Every structure is written in structure tokens, then in C-alpha cells.
Amino acid sequence: MCGCISQPHIATSFWKIGTPADSVRPGYAVLCEGTKMRHCYPITEWTDTMPNYVGKGDTYHSLHHHGVAVESELMAYRIYFDKKQTIDPYCKKKPQLELAQSYWYPNDSLLTEGYGDDILRVSGTVGVGSVKYWNGKKMVHIEPVAERSERIVSAKKDQATIEVAIKGWEVESKVVDMSTHYTMQAGHRDMRCDVFLSDTLSGLCTGVQFIPAKGQNLQSSISNIQLENGVLLASWGTDWPVNDSVKYAKETVGLAVFIPKEYAGALVHDKSNNLCLLNLTGTESAGHTAKRSKMCHAHFYLTCVGATKENHPVATNATEWFAYLRRWAKNLR
């Protein structure tokens, strides 16, 4: 898409990998991921029961771009469908919708036309704004669980919401259900994240990874900024976006999460992640995925910039990024 005014400014992308026999399904397409050709069809939701069962199929590798994704003209985010549930950003060189053509993996022709690409190697980290768990010493992923699901909640012209949900999470001597809604608006690079749980937890957290992700040879600028209305976690650094260091150049990236004061708990960190514990307060509706209409709740915001990928980035160094973030977070609640 060219990003013209006549086109929607928000789009979602969720594809199940199939076989040629799926050609009868609505929206069936043959997609490219590098040199690989994949038979895929669009879906709006997917559920994996007993995901921890040994020998069971691997949902992560059964989905093209490994989970549900959402994009505005400025940024795209995908959420991995596995125990990590990590948010991974895709940055645009110029304002336009792209996933309907690139499917997250732009080929050489699209890159020559000025398409964006994945900009961050998240590995086993928190990425930017993923919901994780703090075990008292380090960040860990969301496991074991009885069921995982992802879905497109809504996709309008100017706003879309995607969801990650789990049932039967064994944690803190409890069995907890959790759903997280990520809402993105047209013209925005940021997302609002609403977390709903069936019971309160002391170790739920979010944050940003160090860049590069590994603790050794750390080149990241890191900042924890206490604002009147909440806590701002930020990082800035340069790293290879993927393991292929021949085809891809290093990317300079800025990451940030803002947690409103009501939900901001203790600040913690390990060798790869800068984190904030979430205070679960109040009750809000989690929609039809919840067993009960009222649950423990917290919300926060995440954002990202690709300083070397974007033609006109909002920041080109750490100082500019932290200044931009103060302006961004000032009116968030």
C-alpha cells in the first residue's frame, strides 16, 4: 500500500500456515519469507490447548510471522505465540501500511522500494512492553499454562486492538487467567496495553530490553525517569536486528514503556532487561475471554523509534530520545 489518504491507516495481520489444500479458504495466499514459499490463510484468532505437552505441535512455527501483528503508518508490532509472548517492532522508512505486501519479511524488491523491516533482536528478553514475570532474581516467561490464544479483537480504520490470552497459568501457588489487549491508533507509533487477571500477582512486570540484549559488551543507554504521573523506562542502543550480519546492517533503536503512577511498582533489572513491577488495582472488563466480567487490571504504554531505519526519526541519539519521551508521556494516564 502507498499510505494514501484513501487507504485505512491501521491494519492487522494474522496468518496460519497451511498446505495447497487450503486454497479453498477465503483469503488464501502463497507468501514469501526470504526464499521460502508458504501456503497461508488469514485468521482472526487461534487457540493452543495444552501448549506445554511434550510432543505436541509447535504453534509458534505454525503461524506466519509467529503471531498476531498490528500496524499504523509509523510502526508495526507482532506478538510471539509462545511462552515468551514478546512484542517485536517493525519500523517504517516512510509513513505507509506495509504488512499486506511484506507480511513482516520484505523481499529485496520491496526493500529497494523503501519498505521498512524488523529492527530489533529481542531474543529471550522483554523486548518493548511485553508482559513478563519477575521471580525475585530475573525475568522469566509466562509458563506453564493450560491454554494460549491470540486474536484480533477489532480492526477499524483508525484503531485496532489485538489480544494475547492465557488460561491456567500456574504461578505464585495459584492458577491464574490473564489477557492483554494492545490498542494502536492511526498516526501513532505507540500502543496502549491493558492487562486483566483473574487474581492479583506480586511479580507481574513489563519494561524494555537493553540493546544489545546480552549483558556482556553492553552498549545501551538506559534511563529510569520518575515523572509526576508515572514511571518512564527507556533504552537506546545499536545491534544487529537479526542473526544474519551479512545481509542486514546494525540498527540504532530507542525503546520505552510508560507506567501510570497508579500501576507502577518497584523497579528491578537483570542482565538483559530494565523492568517495573505492575501494581494490579481496580476492576475493569476484559471482554468475552474472561471467566468473570470484572478482573484485576493495570495498563501502560509502549513506544519505539528506529533511528537508522526511519527517514525522519523523532530522535537520532539518546539525549533526543529521552527528551521526546518526556513530552510523549506527559499527558498519559
Task: Describe this protein's structure.
- This protein has 333 residues and is mainly beta.
- The protein has one domain.
- The protein is built from three helices and 22 strands.
- The protein has helices at residues 99-102, 108-112, 318-329, and strands at residues 11-17, 29-33, 36-42, 45-49, 63-71, 75-79, 87-91, 117-118, 132-134, 139-140, 147-155, 159-171, 174-185, 191-197, 204-209, 221-227, 230-239, 251-260, 264-269, 273-278, 281-284, 295-306.
- Strands 4, 11, 12, 13, 14, 16, 17, 18, 21 and 22 form a ten-stranded antiparallel β-sheet that branches. It has a seven-stranded antiparallel β-sheet with strand order 2-3-1-5-6-7-8. It has a five-stranded antiparallel β-sheet with strand order 10-9-15-20-19, with no helix packed on it.
- β11 (147-155) and β12 (159-171) form a beta hairpin.
- The protein is globular, with a radius of gyration of 19 Å.
What is this structure's SSE topology?
Elements: E1 11-17, E2 29-33, E3 36-42, E4 45-49, E5 63-71, E6 75-79, E7 87-91, H1 99-102, H2 108-112, E8 117-118, E9 132-134, E10 139-140, E11 147-155, E12 159-171, E13 174-185, E14 191-197, E15 204-209, E16 221-227, E17 230-239, E18 251-260, E19 264-269, E20 273-278, E21 281-284, E22 295-306, H3 318-329
Antiparallel strand pairs: 1-3, 1-5, 2-3, 4-11, 5-6, 6-7, 7-8, 9-10, 9-15, 11-12, 12-13, 13-14, 14-22, 15-20, 16-17, 17-18, 18-22, 19-20, 21-22
